[in-house]
Specification:
The chain is of the alpha/beta class. β7, α5 and β8 form a beta-alpha-beta unit. It has a seven-stranded parallel β-sheet. The model has no long low-confidence stretch (mean pLDDT about 95). The N and C termini lie close together (about 5 Å). It is globular and about 50 Å long.
């Protein structure tokens, strides 16, 4: 059973295609179901790549209309939520704002003014040690895990997007985060989006995923599609990687509950 739960809509300002276009793409890719998870609104609109606060009801209505149009095809409603210290109560309020099937936790910001995956800040990578950036990212990610606010965790090593990596064994950055994930029992996303970025690698890396499997951390495979053509992007590669690492199941989500399904 293949699903894709990490897809976006034009409300975030950097995606294209109506929900029905994503659904048709999912059906063409022979997915069993699809889920939408656009970037969460914040109390103040401090960046240009998420839906505005007033757009949330419209977003939920868009997905409800899609469900009416495709009554026999499962369409899940989710939200990709940034974990930013100090905004935990805002996430709790969002969790009560709709009948979500899942909430995705994500870290984009390592400082209040630096979303590390944003190309407009690329120069900042040359202005401080890469080691410090990776440390800040995974410290934030561990805090996100420990908050237990989310159903699964997005693109775990997004910090590698532009190809900047410290020397040596990188597990020193993420072993604490994986220990926390295992203790919390949260699902980890395997995302093919990295294959479309400068790093040209699935999030997370093979070594990262091996370490997750050793800790019995469940996974879900997604595309982070920002256009219909990216739905189920290179899923064969992701499922092959998961099997090679030792995974035999992935998780599906409904009403904020996770259910294991066999990888076939």
């Amino acid at each position: 059973m293949r699903t894709d739960y990490h897809t976006h809509t034009p409300l975030c300002g950097h995606a294209v295609g109506a929900p029905r276009d994503y659904i048709l793409a999912a059906q063409k890719a022979e997915l069993e179901e699809i889920g939408f998870s656009d970037h969460n609104p914040m109390p103040t609109q401090f960046d240009d790549w998420r839906m505005a606060p007033d757009d949330l009801p419209h977003y939920v209505e868009m997905i409800e209309q899609a469900r009416l149009e495709f009554p026999h095809y499962p369409i899940r409603l989710g939200l990709e939520c940034d974990f930013i210290p100090g905004y935990e109560e805002h996430v709790r309020n969002l969790a009560a704002a709709a009948d979500w099937d899942y909430l995705i936790g994500a870290v984009h910001y390592v400082t209040p003014d630096w979303d590390i995956d944003n190309p407009k800040h690329l120069k900042r990578w040359t202005e401080q040690p890469v080691e410090e950036v990776w440390t800040a990212y995974f410290n934030a990610y561990t805090k996100m895990v420990e908050s237990c606010l989310f159903d699964f965790l997005a693109h775990p090593d997004l910090v590698k997007k532009f190809g900047y990596r410290p020397e040596g064994d990188l597990s020193r950055f993420y072993h604490e985060m994986l220990d926390a994930t295992a203790e919390a029992g949260i699902t980890l996303e395997v995302s093919t989006a990295g294959l479309r970025k400068e790093v040209r690698e699935i999030y997370p890396s093979r070594d990262f995923l091996v370490a997750a499997h050793a800790r019995h951390i469940p996974i879900v495979i997604n595309s982070d599609a920002h256009s219909p053509k990216e739905v189920a992007y290179e899923f064969d590669l992701a499922y092959t990687l998961a099997r090679e690492v030792g995974y035999t199941e992935v998780m599906r989500f409904e009403k904020r509950k996770a259910f294991p399904v066999e990888i076939v």
